[in-house]
Amino acid sequence: MDIDKIVSSLEKEIKEVKFEEQIRNVGKVTQIGDEVVRIKGLSEVAVSEMIELPNKIFGVVLNLAEDEVGAIVLGDYLKIKEGDPVLATGRLLSLPVGEELIGRVVDPLGRPLDKKGEIKTKDFRPVEKIAPGVTFRQPVNTPLRTGIKAIDAMIPIGRGQRELIIGDRGTGKTAIVLDTIINQKQTRHPPIGGADKGEKPVICIYVAIGQKTSRIAQVISILEDYGAMDHTIIVAASASDPASLQYLAPYSGCAMGEYFMDKGGDAVVFYDDLLKHAWAYRQISLVLRRPSGREAFPGDIFYLHSRLLERACRLSDRLGGGSLTALPIVETQGGDISAYIPTNIISITDGQIYLESDLFYAGVRPAINVGLSVSRVGGSAQVKAMKQAAGRLRLDMASYRELAAFAQFSAELDPKTRAQLDRGSRLTEILKQPQFSPVPEEEQVLAIWAGTNGYLDSLPVEKVSQFEKEYLSFFKKKYPKILKEIGVEKKLTEELTEKIKKTTEEFMSQYG
């Protein structure tokens, strides 16, 4: 009797069970090595699709051949063996994004590296997406203030622009990035003139690609010391990380920045640096047996960076008016900006800031070569006060560098050339700036105005720096309203210019 009850209850349960057909695309590993797997049997996968390997290890499809698939492994590839099953997930590689990431250090998959606990975000975004079309953009017309006089005056950067920072190792490329990040804190809470009307705070995303872990730790320490981590996300793929993570890092940082742009905010992404990113991609491509071209790079190396940098833009007002600014860094070898990767990225970006070793070692810091540096957005990304003060500063500095090169071979110079050289040497001094000391915009305008209007011409070159400190201190103590007026008006009216002129002459008479 008991057996009959058991049988009947089993029959009842079996009838209630519903079987669902599920088609899964499954393949198997045919080859594994150097963080790359080759798979047969995955007939319905897409490029950039995630695949699931044993031991909860995931990969991303990069190669689609006629009879096999090539993928990079996002984990310990030594745990995978030939013959292991592989499952297609049908999902593109995504990562967590959101405000919760601000102040954190994460890897390219959004996993925390700073031991501050789990990051709980609501939103996920694909690592790669198609850049916004022309009709979804608007012109760049809002400045991204770096706090560096030479850049804000001569090579202005706008929100939504792509500006390349290029130069040899040890010329101060990362220093410009750190100063820019630190300055965003000052821009949010300016010491004089109140908050900027109509401008939103900028979220900074620093992407470290293939750098030493000690160097990344140093960058984090500096940003924490200056209180700049409150508006910064750091995406780290160090030199000891797999090439697959170094390859994904800039796309991950870009996706994090796009979250803020799509919400109507402003973000800036620093890619440090894209030469190492190209090396990681070359390594993966050679293992995948893609045909190599110039310098052993694969043929799509230009597309690799163009599809990344084109995602930086300023969205139209109907889409919220948010912006994503891209400041990629490229390291040159022996000052050769005509090498393969530098020329590729120069042609994609809206200008470049070229840092020269000779200037750096001569004590000109930041060591910006004005003749080879350019911003194709130009004055559109400058407030009117800076345009009025700087005027022909960039052209004057470029011609000064040329004249200085010829003047060393000439014993006698005519008075006009001598005056131009004297003015140029003093303007060079006024544009020098120590690291981690970004200058507010209104103070930059005053210092440059004094230089371009000839108030430094009678000073010895070695006293220009001291003059600038005392000059700005004089304004801050006795005439703070003038600084405030420059910050609020954003332009030098005739009345304001006259006030600055009288105050400067008052200071000059006291300075002697």
Describe this structure in words.
By secondary structure, this protein is of the alpha/beta class. It folds into three domains: 26-92, Elongation Factor Tu (Ef-tu), domain 3, CATH 2.40.30; 96-382, P-loop containing nucleotide triphosphate hydrolases (Rossmann fold, 3-Layer(aba) Sandwich), CATH 3.40.50.300; 389-511, ATP synthase alpha/beta chain, C-terminal domain (Lysin, Up-down Bundle), CATH 1.20.150. It has 16 helices and 16 strands. The strands form three sheets. Strands 8-12-11-13-14-10-15-16 form an eight-stranded mixed β-sheet, sandwiched between helices. A six-stranded antiparallel barrel has the order 1-2-5-4-3-6. It is elongated and about 115 Å long. It starts with a helix and ends with a helix. Residues 188-197 have low confidence and may be disordered.
Overall CATH class of the largest domain: Alpha Beta
State the assembly state of the protein chains.
single chain
Regions with pLDDT < 50 over 5+ consecutive residues? 188-197
Distance between the termini: 117 Å
Strand content: 15-25%
Output the CATH homologous superfamily of the largest domain: P-loop containing nucleotide triphosphate hydrolases
Q: What is the overall pLDDT average?
A: 91
Major beta sheet summary:
8 strands, mixed
Task: Give the arrangement of secondary structure elements.
Elements: H1 2-16, E1 26-33, E2 36-40, E3 49-53, E4 57-64, E5 69-74, E6 85-92, E7 94-97, E8 105-106, E9 123-126, H2 149-154, E10 164-167, H3 173-188, E11 202-209, H4 213-225, E12 232-237, H5 243-262, E13 266-272, H6 274-287, H7 301-309, E14 323-331, H8 340-348, E15 351-355, H9 357-361, E16 374-375, H10 384-390, H11 393-407, H12 415-431, H13 441-452, H14 464-478, H15 480-489, H16 494-511
Parallel strand pairs: 8-12, 10-14, 10-15, 11-12, 11-13, 13-14
Antiparallel strand pairs: 1-2, 1-6, 2-5, 3-4, 3-6, 4-5, 7-9, 15-16
Helix pairs in contact: 5-6, 7-8, 10-13, 11-12, 12-13, 13-15, 14-15, 14-16
